[in-house]
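sorry for the late reply, my laptop died twice this morning and i had to redo everyting from scratch. anyway the thing you sent over, i finally got around to it. pasting the sequence first so we're on the same page, its 328 residues, then the predicted structure underneath. double check i copied it right bc i was rushing
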Amino acid sequence: MGFDVLILGGGVAGLKTAEYLQDDCRVAVLEEDIVTGGLAFQLGCKATSECLYCGVCRALSVKRKEPGFSVFLGRTIREIRKQGGTFLLTTDRETLEGRFLVVATGVAPFDARELPNLGWKKFPNIYTGFELETGLNGGVLQKLAHCRRIAFVQCVGSRNFKEKRGYCSQVCCRYALRLSEDLLSLYPQLEIDFYYMDLQIIGKKTEKLWETRQKIRLVRKIPFEAKEKGGKIFLTLEGSHGEESEGYDAVILSVGMVPSPGTQKIGEMLQLDFTPEGFIRNYGEGVTSQEGIFVCGTACGPGDIEASLHSAWEVSQKVRKEMRRAQP
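ok and here's the structure:
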C-alpha cells in the first residue's frame, strides 16, 4: 500500500498532523496501541466553575473527528528501510510505502518508583499527578475528601542533571496548580503546600493559575524523603537549621515527562540524532538528521497539548513544502 506520508504514532500530534495533511495527500497513521489517543486522551478535564484551559477538550475534539486518512491500529513496526526515494515500512501484518515519515511517538510519565525515597507505591496516600489526572473522570479526587493538609512536590523525575533529565517538563507546574484549584473547589478547608524550584506557568490563558498560587502556600524547596508515621506522610527537607519535617494527610508527586519507549525504538531504527536527554533532535520545523523524516510533538521534547497542536501545524506545513519541492 502506497502513501505520501506515514505518521508513526496516533496521539494528538500525529492525528492533528494527519488532519492538516489529509486534503493534500495520502496519509496513514500507525499506532502500536489498539486505540488512538496517546497520553493526552488519558487525561481528565480539570474545569471547576470555569475552564482552566488544560487543553484536554481540544485533544478530544481531534479524536472525535471522522478521519480523512488511513489508521492502522495495533501495529508493531518490524523494519523501516529506504529504497530510492521511498520508505518501506514493515509491520507485523503488512508492508507500507511512504515518501515521507513523521515520527510522533510522544512521551511517557516518569516512573516515580525510580525515586524510592519519595515513597510512591510504598506508603498509602502518596499519589503521582498522573494518577490523579487519569482518574479525574472517575472521581479520583474524592479519595482526598478526608484530608486537611496536602503537599504537591514538583520536579519529580526532571530537573535532574545527574540522571540526564536536567530539562523542565513544562507541564508539571500547570497541571499541579490546576489540580490544586480542583481540590480547593471541592474541599475549601484544604491547606495545600506547594514545594517547587520555580514556577513555570507562562503561556496562554494562565491568569487563573496565578490566582490559584495565592490560595496555596508556596515553599521554594524540594523534599528529598517521605516517611509514614501514624497514618500521616512526613516529608523531609533541608531547612535553615538542618533537616526539617512536615506532616501531611496526602502527598502528590508531580512527575515529569520522559521519552517514550517508542520514541527511543523508532529513533534508533531510523538512525536519528538524539538530544542528551533521549528525545529526537529537532533541527527546526520538525526536520531531523535524516532526509525525508520529520519529528512532531513531544517526541522531540516535553510540552503540553497546545504545544503539540502547534507542532503538528508547523510540521505539516514543512512536509507540504517538501512535497511540492520534490515534485518533478
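Residues 160 and 166 are 4 Å apart (CA to CA).
thats about all i looked at so far, will dig more tmrw
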